[in-house]
Fold each of these.
Amino acid sequence: MDNAFRYQDGELFCEGVAVRDIARQVGTPFYLYSSFAFCSRLNDYEKAFGNYPHLVCFAVKSNSNLAVLNLMANQGAGADIVSGGELFRALRSGFPADRIVYSGVGKTIPEIREAIGAGILMFNVESMQELEEISRQARILGKRARISFRVNPDVNPKTHPYISTGLKKNKFGMPMGMALEAYRMAMDMDGIDIIGIDCHIGSQLTDLAPFVDALDRVKSLLVDIESFGIELDYIDIGGGLGIKYHEENAPSPGEYVRAILDHMDGLEHKIIIEPGRSIAGNAGILVTSVINIKDTGTKKFIIVDAAMNDLARPSLYEAYHAIHPVSRGDAVHEAVDIVGPICESGDFLARNRLFPRIARGDLLSVFSAGAYGFTMSSNYNSRPRAAEVLVRGQEFAVVRARETYDDLIRGEKVLDWTCERL
Ligand code: LLP
């Protein structure tokens, strides 16, 4: 978090702005991002690569707010996208097309056409079928498409099963055993320029060994590929570096990059990485207010105005997010569940948490919410999605307005039908 969020005299600040002041003006719940935290994490990656040729492609899925993306683009990052919608956002926010890589396990024909049309740096291709489609569309558009194959190195990232991707049983990538043949076939395909090799093994990895194993496997395949005359420019090793949510000991971007560079064994291929969480995760918090406090005799529930539709991670992965009052208070702690108003028992932000005594109306902040927070939010229970706010130094700006009830029903219509045959 690089102390972008810190307490001064018991009050939580984001850089130079008191969180309470923002809440007063914006209302709750809202996501709050520190531009300093975003930039300093990106800079950690940049510094660690130094002069080694590289491109840091920010994973748009982790935080796709236009202002955040624009900040990353202005700092020289590229973008890793997985859909036409993310391509649209990446271009709108100012990423040059030649800094955009397109991963994703199921690219549709319109999405492929949009990306070829835009002239992105490369497609990370998942299968021969997909490659044939890319080639066909490139020919129709009279353009060329640059590609890497995404290979599946079959290493265990030792992370939550929903976010591990580089095992044989996962849907992602092409088995190593098939990749050589795929490269050979791609050589003769119209409209295709083969420029790299790609893998991504999972997310929230707190151990560097699986990254290095995956790189070793990719490197040996690369040597085989180049032995039949294809020269690759890029090795894309995906994203996945973990962060500290609670008690994890996550390596820093610098340690991660050094481990990669130490294993390049004299190869000089340009390295692409696709970090999302390790840049965005601790650059954002979710600010919420206490609606009610309910003591059932068995349990104490703090009911807040943010819910699983705003931050799905606790419900979906049983993920831990630190939660603290915006104004530090009572030293007495008691065990509570912090829950949202949604009609599901799975709607919780924290369970059995020791928490200081607080009151109705108090503000709480949910930490490490900058990645996979807003981007995974929904309108479940017809809840308008939260506002997003970006801070820089002493200033802040609402970079996504809180949704209104009208936003909730946009595109819907009432037909005033009754059922014909009952
Ligand atoms: N590249 C590819 C191809 C990916 O699939 C992902 C994440 C990334 C890069 C970025 O990974 P990161 O550096 O953020 O770990 N919703 C889950 C995380 C899903 C990650 C999916 N892919 C969560 O909240 O934990």
Note: Residues 104-273 form a domain with the TIM Barrel fold (CATH 3.20.20.10).
Amino acid sequence: MADPKSREGQRYDTAEIHAFLDALHGPHDKALGLAFSAPERTGLPQIQLGQQEGGLLTLLMRLIGARRVVEVGTLAGYSGLRLARGLQPGGRLWTLEYHPRHAMVARPALVAAPPGVTVKLLEGDAKETLPKLEIEGPFDAVFLDADKAGYAEYGAWAAQNLRAGGLLIADNVYLFGRLLEENEEAEAVRRFHHEAAEAFDTCVVPTPDGLLIGIKR
Ligand code: SAH
Ligand code: DHB
Ligand code: MG
């Protein structure tokens, strides 16, 4: 996008445009539709990625031929299923979730991963589960979408545990519009941005809340 208004944050998408695009570009399969609607149906927060953001995850995994991927923040399994669908045969996804209720909703959804792709849901605080995962690395991609106060720590872990050329992807890097505020959470996400820019070739895709993508140097 390239005009002064859009540079200031004006957007051109509408609910009707999204409906048109989602009908055309998908997802078209039932399992992804169910995973996407699971938060609404089960009373979980409706904070999963958008449909087309999910499609971007699948496409990125295919582009890099991903086999070993870590997701921090499972919720109901929608983005996890999107990642899993882009993995090579024999690929593995580890997805980390703190809330037992979210994990319970996600488990059946993640069963729809492609045959030959293994998904492991690790319950608990990612600050504790990530160190235990190190032995499975190096990884091809890490997707961050959990507590934003943890982003600096998760980003540092990703820099340590991704292969050269591996992808760091992070949702909510505008921090709901609060990125530049003076509080601990915003400071942590700004620290994440600084560290990501240092260890990765980065850009931020202007999704509703910003999606950072970086290639590990
Ligand atoms: N990636 C999902 C949405 C994730 S919402 C999707 O697009 O479908 C954020 C999730 O992170 C919530 O389920 C929340 O419970 C989880 N979370 C928050 N803090 C966490 C932590 N410290 N460790 C692991 N998961 C955490
Ligand atoms: C929230 C978390 C997210 O990851 C997101 O994309 C939107 C909202 C939240 O915690 O409110
Ligand atoms: Mg998010």
Note: The mean pLDDT is 97.
